[in-house]
Amino acid sequence: MTIHQEVKIPASPDAIFGILTTSDKFTAMTGGRSADIAAEEGGAFSLFGGDIRGRHIELVPGKRVVQAWRSNAWPEGVYSIVSFVLSIDGSETKLQFSQSGYPDGAQEMLEGGGHKCIGSP
What is the CATH number of the domain that holds 19? Predict the structure, then answer.
């Protein structure tokens, strides 16, 4: 199963990439839920006050972020693959979000949280 969502955001791809890869910007975007985000591929991150943890797999500035995510609520060793693909769409950025490899029963919660997060940078 895969979750796929698309939104248009009135910001540049570079600005959105910065939000996804910078601790203080991500924290501000999520209303103050703390984030600790390493800046390099292979680096670790913790999001939403530690509810999500993982590592960057691929970082292409202004274009793509691919990460291995795991929720603290999931069984040990279970990770999903999350990707954010950024592209210019007129004066906005189209953000394509996808997530696969999550445990059975997690889709409804993930779909609701992802849309809230990516729709409001």
Answer: 3.30.530.20
The model's pTM is: 0.87
Show Cβ contacts of residue 61 under 8 Å, excluding neighbours closer than 6 positions. Answer: 14, 17
CB 39 within 8 A of CB 53: no
Once rounded to an integer, what is the mean pLDDT over residues 33-44? 96
Alpha carbon distance 41, 35 (integer Å): 17
What's the pLDDT tens digit per position in 87-98? Answer: 999 999 999 999
- Alpha helix (H) residue ranges in 3-118: 13-21, 23-29, 107-118
Instruction: Name the residue type at position 13.
Output: P
Cα gap 22→49, rounded to integer Å:
14
**Which residue segment(s) compose the domain that 70 sits in?**
2-118
72-100: average pLDDT:
95
- Report how many domains make up the chain: 1
Q: Which amino acid is at 37?
A: I
- The Cβ-side half-sphere exposure at 92, using a 13 Å CA radius, reads 10
Q: Is the dihedral of CA 75, 110, 118, 116 positive or negative?
A: negative
